[in-house]
Design goal:
The structure holds two protein chains of two kinds. By secondary structure, chain A is of the alpha/beta class. Helix content of chain A is 35%, strand content 30%. Chain A has twelve helices and 14 strands. The longest helix of chain B is centred in the C-terminal third of the chain and has 36 residues. The mean pLDDT of chain B is 85. The chains are: A alpha/beta, B mainly alpha. At the A-B interface, strand 1, strand 6 and helix 4 of A face helix 1, helix 4 and helix 11 of B.
C-alpha cells in the first residue's frame, strides 16, 4: 500500500506584520510571531481515514493548508501522491478540500450554479459537466434543493455541498477541516455515516480529517495523530494512542465475593455490590497481571462470573498527553 | 487556451448571475448613468469650445469620451484588488485556489466581469449620447479605434495587477488605488486638457496610459483621424502597455508567492 500523504520536518511560522507607526516608534522590536508547526513528520496511507486531532491552535488547519498548496512551509517538505506540494499543478488534481467554513460559496447563486462554476475551475470536461454535477448532487442528497439559493440551505446542506464540490474532479485524497463543526447532532451523525460508508467504504478515498472532536475521531479514523503546539505528540492506530501513557490494563470482573487480601495485593479502582456478588474494577500491570490475579482468586475459591478488559478511551489519552506537555 | 477561455467565461457567467440577482440595483445603476450623462451635457455648455487643448472638439463630446474611458481605468484599478479582497472576506478565494486553476488566473479572471461590464457601460454612454443628444461619431477608422481600445484594456490590466499585488502583499488596496485614481483623474485629460495645467505639471500626463488612450479614441471617434495621424499616440500607448503589463504580472507573481509564504493569501 502506497503513501497518499507524507510530511517531513514541516515547520511554519507566521509573523504578524507591523504597522508603519509601530516600525517608526519601535524600530528594533521584533515582530510578533506564532510558530504554527514545529517539525511535523507523518505518513498517511492510501485508503485510510487519518485523524488530525488537537486543540484549537495546534496547527491542524495550517498543516491542511500546506497540503492543499495554499501555504508554503518554511522548512521541510510535504508530498501528495508522491509529488511535492511545490508542484501545484500535479498535486491539486489529487486533492479535494472540504471546508468547515460555510461562507466558501456564493450565497446568492443556487447550489447548481455554484457547482457549475467550480466544475470549470476543477477542469471537469465541458461535455461531462452537467452529468457530473447531477451525479454529485444526487450522491450528497441535494438534487431536490439544487436550484434553491445557497443562502436558503441549512448548515448540514451547506456542508454536503462542500463535500460535493471537493469531489468534482474525483480526487483520490480528501482533506476535511472540521466538517461537522457547525452541525447539529443529527446532521453530524448523517455526515459521519456518509464519510465512512460512501467516501471511505465505497469510493476508497484517502481522508485526512482535522477535528477536535475525539468521539468523531474514534468512530471514523483508522489512525490518528495528536498535534499540540505544532508538534505531533502521538501517532498510531486509535487503540495505540488510547493506550498511550498507560502502563496498566483495566479489567472489570463480576465475582461472588472479593477477598480482603486481594485489595492489598492488586490495585482496585472500584468495588461495589452487584446482584448477589461484587463488581470490581482493577488495574493490572504487566503482561501476566491478569494471570496472577486469576490464579490468586482460584486459590481462594472465588467464583468468577465474567471478566472484561475495559478500553482506555481517547479522551483519557488526550488528557495524559496534555498533562505531559 | 480553450481551458483558460472557458474559465474566464465561467467567471463572467458567475458574476452576471450575481449581478442580475440584484435586479433593482442593476436598473438603478443604468438609470443613474443616464442622469450623469445629462448633467455633463448641461455642465459642458458652460465651457468655451475654443478653450486651449480641445482642438476644436465639442466640450461635451470631449468629456463624454474622457468619462467613458476613465471608467475602464478605474475598473482596472479597483476591480482586481476589490475582488481579491471580497473573495478573501467571503471565504471563496480559498475554495478557488485549491482547485487546479492557477492563482494568477483566478485573480486575473476575477475581474473579467467588471471589464465586460465596463465595456457595456462605455457602449451605453456612447449609445445614450448618440440617441439622446444627437452626438455623431466617426467610425470609418474602426480598426484604429479597436487597436486603441485593446491597448487601453491591456495597459489598464497592467495597472490593475499592480494594484492587486499591493493588496495581496499589504492587505490594503486603498492607498495605492486612491493615488493612482487621483493621478488618472487629474493628469489623465479626463475632464480638462493637459494644456490647462501649469506648464511644469503638463509633462506628468505623458506618463499615464489614459492620456494616450484618450488621444487615440478622441482622435478616431470625434475627429475621424486614421492610423497615420495617430501612430505616435498609439506608439506611446504601446510602450506604456509594454512596461505596465509585464510589470503588473511579474509583481503579482511575487506578491502571490509572498502571500503564500506568509499564509495571508486566504486570510483576511
Amino acid at each position: 500500500m502506497g503513501h497518499a500523504v507524507e510530511a517531513r520536518r514541516l515547520e511554519k511560522r507566521f509573523t504578524r506584520r507591523r504597522s508603519i507607526r509601530d516600525i517608526l516608534f519601535h524600530p528594533f522590536r521584533s515582530p510578533e510571531a506564532v510558530q504554527a508547526l514545529r517539525g511535523v513528520d507523518l505518513t498517511i496511507r492510501e485508503g485510510e481515514i487519518f485523524g488530525l486531532l488537537g486543540p484549537n491552535g495546534a496547527g491542524k488547519t495550517t498543516l491542511l493548508k500546506i497540503l492543499s498548496c495554499l501555504v508554503l512551509p518554511d522548512v521541510g517538505t510535504a508530498a501528495i501522491g508522491g509529488y511535492p506540494t511545490s508542484r501545484e499543478q500535479l498535486v491539486k488534481p489529487l486533492i479535494g478540500l472540504v471546508h468547515s467554513d460555510e461562507r466558501s460559496f456564493y450565497w446568492r447563486l443556487t447550489g447548481r450554479q455554484n457547482m457549475n462554476f467550480f466544475s470549470t475551475l476543477y477542469e471537469v470536461p465541458r461535455e461531462a459537466r452537467d452529468a457530473r454535477v447531477d451525479e454529485l448532487l444526487r450522491k450528497v442528497d441535494m438534487e431536490e434543493a439544487a436550484d434553491r439559493p445557497f443562502a436558503d440551505y441549512s448548515s448540514g446542506m451547506k456542508q454536503r455541498m462542500s463535500i460535493a464540490r471537493a469531489l468534482l474532479h474525483d480526487p483520490p485524497i480528501l482533506l476535511m477541516d472540521e466538517p461537522t463543526r457547525s452541525l447539529d447532532p443529527a446532521a453530524a451523525l448523517s455526515l459521519r455515516r456518509f464519510i465512512q460508508d460512501e467516501l471511505s467504504g465505497r469510493d476508497r478515498k484517502t481522508i485526512v480529517l482535522a477535528t477536535h472532536n475525539l468521539h468523531e475521531a474514534e468512530l471514523l479514523c483508522s489512525r490518528i495523530a495528536i498535534l499540540m503546539k505544532g508538534k505531533v505528540r502521538q501517532i498510531g492506530t486509535v487503540e495505540e494512542v488510547r493506550r498511550w501513557g498507560l502502563d496498566t490494563r483495566n479489567y472489570e470482573m463480576e465475582v461472588d465475593r472479593w477477598p480482603v487480601e486481594a485489595g492489598e495485593r492488586f490495585a482496585v479502582l472500584s468495588d461495589r455490590s452487584w446482584e448477589d456478588g461484587r463488581r470490581v474494577r482493577v488495574a493490572l500491570a504487566g503482561e501476566d497481571g491478569l494471570n496472577l490475579l486469576l490464579a490468586f482468586l482460584m486459590e481462594r475459591g472465588v467464583k468468577l462470573r465474567s471478566c472484561n478488559q475495559v478500553d482506555a478511551d481517547l479522551e483519557g489519552a488526550f488528557a495524559r498527553i496534555l498533562e505531559a506537555e | 487556451m480553450i481551458r483558460v477561455a472557458a474559465k474566464l467565461w465561467a467567471f463572467i457567467v458567475r458574476d452576471f448571475q450575481q449581478q442580475v440577482s440584484y435586479r433593482l440595483a442593476f436598473l438603478l445603476q443604468i438609470g443613474g448613468m443616464f442622469l450623469s450623462l445629462g448633467a455633463f451635457f448641461f455642465l459642458t455648455r458652460m465651457i468655451d469650445p475654443e478653450a486651449k487643448g480641445l482642438d476644436g472638439m465639442n466640450p461635451f463630446e470631449w468629456m463624454l469620451l474622457g468619462l467613458a474611458f476613465q471608467y475602464y481605468f478605474s475598473t482596472a484599478l479597483y476591480a482586481f484588488s476589490a475582488k481579491v479582497r471580497s473573495e478573501q472576506m467571503m471565504g471563496t478565494l480559498e475554495a478557488m485556489l485549491v482547485s487546479p486553476t492557477s492563482t494568477g488566473l483566478v485573480i486575473f479572471s476575477s475581474a473579467a466581469w467588471d471589464f465586460t461590464y465596463a465595456g457595456f457601460r462605455v457602449l451605453l454612454y456612447l449609445g445614450g449620447a448618440w440617441l439622446i443628444f444627437g452626438i455623431s461619431f466617426h467610425l470609418e477608422n474602426f480598426p484604429v479605434l479597436i487597436l486603441g481600445v485593446v491597448l487601453t484594456l491591456l495597459s489598464s490590466v497592467g495597472l490593475g495587477m499592480l494594484s492587486a499585488s499591493f493588496i495581496l502583499y499589504f492587505k490594503r488596496g486603498d492607498p495605492i488605488n486612491f493615488f493612482l485614481s487621483g493621478m488618472t483623474t487629474f493628469f489623465g485629460t479626463v475632464f480638462f486638457p493637459a494644456e490647462q495645467l501649469p506648464a511644469f505639471l503638463q509633462g506628468v500626463s505623458d506618463y499615464l496610459p489614459i492620456t494616450w488612450s484618450l488621444r487615440v479614441v478622441r482622435g478616431a471617434l470625434l475627429l475621424g483621424k486614421g492610423f497615420a495621424e495617430l501612430k505616435n499616440d498609439l506608439l506611446a500607448l504601446t510602450v506604456l502597455t509594454a512596461v505596465l503589463l509585464p510589470a503588473g504580472l511579474f509583481l503579482s507573481r511575487i506578491a502571490i508567492r509572498k502571500a503564500k509564504q506568509e499564509g495571508s493569501l486566504v486570510q483576511y
